[in-house]
Each structure stands twice: as C-alpha cells, then as structure tokens.
Write a structure and sequence with these properties.
The chain is of the alpha+beta class. The chain contains 10 helices and 17 strands.
C-alpha cells in the first residue's frame, strides 16, 4: 500500500464531499459530475457526459486496453447523489476531520468509496496498463432508485466482464447479494366538506391515509427481513376543507423471490374502495431486482479476499439490504462484487462518517482488483 498517499486520497474525498449534491439539486449534482470528469481526464481517461436526463448528468469515463478495446472489461459503478439536503435530514452537515473519523454529507454513502476507486485506478495505472479495459459510471439518481439511468447501467454492464461497486462496506463483510426493493405510490381520494361547519359530510383522504399507513407498515416481518416503510406523505390544501386527496410513497424490501411476490400481492390488494367510501389507488414505481450471489460474484470475492489477506484483513461476504445499482447488474447474472467502499456508520443521517483506516485499505483492494483481473 506504499504507493497510496493517504493525505492525497483524503483530500480528494473531502473535495468531492464539499460539493452538496442531493438528488434533486441538479446544479449540485452536475457540479460534482464536472469535478469527477476533470479528475478522470487528468489520469488519462476519455469521458462522455449524458445530459438528457430528468435529474443531474451521468458520466462515463473509459480507459481501453492495449488494443483500444473498451468492452469485455471492468465496470466500476457508483453514484454521486446523496440524501443530504437540510429538509430531508433536519440540518446541514458540516465536514469534520478527526483522527479516526471524517464526517460529511455522503462521505460514507458513497463519495468516499467512489473517489477511493478512482484513486485506486490511478495507482494501478502507474504500475502499468491493467489487463482489462476499465469503465467508470457516475450515477446522478441512485438514491431515488435510478429511474433515468437503469437502462444505461444495464446496457453498459452487458458489455463488460466484471462489475465492482464501491458502495459502503459492512465492517469486514463485502456485499455478494442485495435484497430487492419495490417502490409504490399510494393515493387516497375522498370527498370535500367545510371542516368547520359540516365535517361529517366529508370523507377525509388524509385520515384514510393515516390508517392505511399503519396497515402497510404493519405488514413488516422483521425476522424475515421483509419490511415496508412510508417516507413521504402529502395531503390536503386548506385546513378548513376536508381533504379530498393524499399521496404517500412506500419502500418495500424483499430478501427472497417469494418475499418479492408476496409484497406485490399485498400492495395490489390495497387498491379499491375502502371503509367510509374513500378510494385507494396503488401505482408501482421503480424496482431494484433481487441480486443473489452467482459463481462469478463468488470468484470476484475470492480475488478480493486474497488481496485483503496479504495486508492482514480477513474479508467475509453476505447478502444485505440497502439497495444499490449493483442490484441491476447482479440480477442480470454479471459477476458483481458490491460493498467495496469505505467503512463508517450513520449513512443517511447528520452523523454520517467514514473511518480513515479503511479508506486506504479499500483503495488498495480496489486498485489490485483493477490491476490483476483478467
């Protein structure tokens, strides 16, 4: 690991983290895409920017093999958007550098890992051109399910041999599979009345939604890992009018194929006219498919584990929740190793941090994988 300069790597990660880039801040996302593009060009990669999306731009950076080929190689896949806007987590998040921890918005999920991967590629290239062509994809909308980039991700992954995803690690466990994620939009429709005169004549869509939320979240089976969560709710317009509509977003997690089908059945069964005459509508949204470990994924893990053992780390692997774009590539059967990023804690909160020690370790593992895979 002697060729990894810790302070240089840390400064690069902090520079990315300083750019606020929550998914709906298009200017912020595009600012970090520009920063990533400049960093890629400085190490000799060609870049292509996709701007015809509904959110920020997507960036693709390539280094061909010795014959000029860009396919049949390694795809390094990660996102630069975060959930960190003051409205979503309750405050702005400062960057704080301590001896062991570095706090910052999105530093653990996943700017630290993606910047470490790029630095790792730079280190690998110093030793000589990697055996395989290398492509990086920087995704702008992962935190909302990658609705505008999924097709681009899958199309690129099909051209490559391996996919490495530097999403947050789980201690010493890499991610060899991920639960499926299903998003839904629920809408309740009632009928109006003057809330201060003839309240009983109306049918409140907000009250119906409140009862529906309890029902939906009550479907959760924590022992099986099958969970339902409502995170966004909008309803009503005037407090003196019985609300006629209310909308809520649901995120459901399925650890198995049977669980996936069960969630689909439960959610579809909610549609129709409920008690009191309020109508319930159910609209399926973006899905992250189930990613289960394949033979190719286990091969990638073995390679990573051997590299880690050389520096005294005993890596393990498991299937986890917390969806990523690796769901798409793993579900296609393309060898995908996820969770290769930095370690830390408190992702998606004001206390999110990265552990400095793992920053260099993960960079080394990524660098060696990029240099040695054939």
């Amino acid at each position: 690991m002697d060729d990894i300069i810790e302070q240089e790597l840390l400064e690069g990660i902090i520079a990315w983290t300083q750019i606020r880039s929550h998914t709906f801040d298009v200017a912020g996302v595009n600012q970090i895409i520009t920063k990533a593009s400049d960093d890629c060009e400085r190490i000799g990669m060609s870049v292509e920017r996709f701007s015809e999306l509904n959110f920020g731009d997507m960036l693709k950076a390539r280094m061909p093999d010795g014959s000029g080929c860009t396919e049949g190689g390694i795809l390094v896949l990660g996102h630069v958007d975060t959930v960190h806007c003051p409205e979503s987590i309750g405050c702005d998040v400062p960057i704080v550098v301590e001896a062991e921890r570095v706090y910052g918005p999105g530093i653990y999920d996943m700017k630290g890992g993606m910047r470490a991967a790029l630095y790792g590629f730079k280190v690998a290239s110093r030793r000589g051109r990697p055996h395989l062509p290398v492509t990086f994809m920087f995704i702008p909308d992962e935190e909302i399910g990658s609705p505008t980039t999924r097709e681009l991700i899958e199309a690129e992954a099909r051209k490559q041999k391996y996919v490495l995803v530097p999403e947050p690690t789980h201690g010493r466990k890499l991610v060899s599979g991920r639960h499926a994620f299903l998003r839904y939009t629920l809408t309740t429709r009632g009928s109006p009345a003057h809330a201060g005169v003839n309240n009983r004549d109306g049918k409140s869509a907000v009250r119906a939604m409140a009862e529906l939320i309890q029902e939906v979240e009550g479907f959760s089976d924590y022992e099986r890992g099958e969970t339902y969560s409502v995170g966004v709710v909008h309803g009503g317009l005037f407090v003196n009018v019985v609300p006629t509509s209310c909308v809520a977003q649901v995120l459901a997690v399925a650890p198995t194929h049977e669980s996936f089908l069960r969630i689909q059945r439960k959610m579809a069964a909610l549609a129709g006219e409920g008690e009191g005459g309020v109508v319930v509508e159910v609209a399926p949204g973006p899905v992250r498919p189930l990613f289960e470990a394949s033979e190719g994924t286990l091969f990638l893990f073995d390679q990573a584990a051997q590299i880690a053992a050389e520096i005294g780390i005993n890596l393990q692997h498991a299937q986890f929740g917390g969806g990523s774009d690796g769901n798409f590539t793993g579900a296609l059967g393309i060898p995908t190793l996820d969770g290769l990023g930095v370690d830390g804690a408190a992702l998606h909160t004001a206390g999110e941090y990265m552990l400095r020690t793992t920053m260099v370790q993960r960079c080394h593992i990524l660098s060696r994988l990029i240099a040695t895979l054939q």
